[in-house]
Design brief:
This protein is α/β, with parallel strands linked by helices. It contains 9 helices and 14 strands. The protein has 2 domains: 242 residues, 3-Layer(aba) Sandwich (Aspartate Aminotransferase, domain 2); 102 residues, Aspartate Aminotransferase, domain 1, CATH 3.90.1150.10. The protein is globular, with a radius of gyration of 21 Å. Bound molecules: pyridoxal-5'-phosphate (PLP). The site of pyridoxal-5'-phosphate has 12 residues, from α3.
Length: 363
């Protein structure tokens, strides 16, 4: 295992080593089935068990109330940008979106194809370096729903807690902080998350939806985007992304049994992020965080160096030192360290050491 690097990629992101080892062990012959999960019928008994256990473990982790359905879908979070308005924005209705970055922007762009969209708040004027305060939200009391992005992967900002939006169902794109902390699911109408940031591999998107909202799906929604149909068919309307669900299921078991649940992982995530933000704040003339401190993400830490040449050098040298994927997104520039659930504390410590060393050599 000595040739594995510290993988700071924003997504697909690093997975727990024990999950990879378990998948490797069972790859050729899954628990005596004589075949791999990659080759197995999704209607077979062993696969039924895999998908049902994945849902049950997810329900346990998040304490999902019984009036919520879990759907495993394909098409990434981006498909949900369309599926949400197609199912939940009635003809003539209007939806509120809180605009906190590129992903919210993409969600808005899709929703506009299906109905009226209002931007209830935005922090675009400061290059999305913060989360809007409660009093900045200008909500439409008749909104069909309110959509927000819980963690802004590109900018490195994160909601501390969900916005207060009154009676309208709250819809959350939780792709990059899903399962990083406990969540009160009952405050939401729908939560969706592409698995590849924090919950598994690319290919499966998890949707958690309050049962009564399934009644909203109008006629004419394509089958594969129809929440009501997919939920009735228990994610088996057609062949689900079998292997991705299997790996996500192993990640749920890792969280539940090895880590000890979401309270514990939240504490670990706080500690990791704190270590890194303290290193940034300790040298304010050299390292500059992009996000305002009160809006800082525990998942994606974005920071700048004194100039772009140094940033390029930092990305190059860190990669050579086994710290992979630190180059920032072009919308922010600089560096971005994605330190999702499965990213080890030792990797954060290694980055902090590298930062000290880099500043000493190039300061
Ligand atoms: C990565 C990301 C997306 C896009 O996900 P895809 O699965 O590639 O469609 C959407 N929202 C957020 C918050 C993300 O981090």
């Amino acid at each position: 295992m000595t040739d594995r690097v510290f993988n700071f990629s924003a997504g697909p992101g690093t997975l727990p080593l024990s999950v990879l080892e378990s998948a490797q062990r069972d790859l050729l012959n899954y628990k005596g089935a004589g075949m791999s999960v990659l080759e197995m019928s999704h209607r077979s008994a062993p696969y039924e068990k895999i998908i049902r256990e994945a849902e049950a473990d997810l329900r346990t982790l998040l304490s999902i109330p019984s009036n919520y359905k879990v759907i495993f879908m394909q098409g990434g979070a981006s498909l949900q940008f369309s599926a949400v308005p197609m199912n939940l924005l009635p003809k003539g209705g209007s939806a509120d979106y809180i605009l906190t970055g590129v992903w919210s922007q993409s969600a808005i762009k899709e929703a506009k194809k299906f109905g009226e969209v209002r931007v209830a708040a935005t922090t675009e004027d400061s290059n999305f370096n913060r989360i809007p305060a409660g009093e900045e939200l200008q909500l439409d009391p008749n909104a069909a729903y309110v959509h927000f992005t819980s963690n802004n992967t590109i900018y490195g900002t994160q909601w501390r807690t969900e916005p207060e939006v009154g009676a309208a169902p709250l819809i959350c794109d939780a792709s990059s902080d899903f399962l990083s902390r406990p969540l009160d699911v009952s405050k939401y109408g729908l939560i969706y998350a592409g698995a590849q940031k924090n919950a598994g591999p690319a290919g499966v998107t998890i949707v958690i939806v309050r049962e009564d909202l399934l009644e909203r799906t109008p006629k004419g929604v394509p089958a594969l985007m129809d929440y009501r149909l997919l939920s009735e068919k228990e994610s088996m309307y057609n062949t689900p992304p079998c292997f991705a669900i299997y790996i996500a299921g192993l990640v749920f078991k890792w969280l539940k049994d090895e880590i000890g649940g979401l309270d514990r992982i939240a504490q670990m995530n706080e500690e990791k992020a704190d270590l890194l933000y303290r290193a940034i704040d300790a040298a304010p003339d050299y390292f500059r965080g992009h996000a305002e401190p009160a809006s800082r993400s525990l998942m994606n830490v974005t920071f700048r160096l004194p100039d772009e040449e140094l940033e390029k050098q930092f990305a190059k040298e860190s990669t050579a030192a086994g710290l992979d994927g630190l180059k920032g997104h072009r919308s922010v520039g600089g560096l971005r360290a994605s330190i999702y659930n499965a990213f080890p504390r030792s990797g954060v410590a290694a980055l902090v050491d590298f930062m000290h060393d880099f500043q000493k050599r190039h300061g």
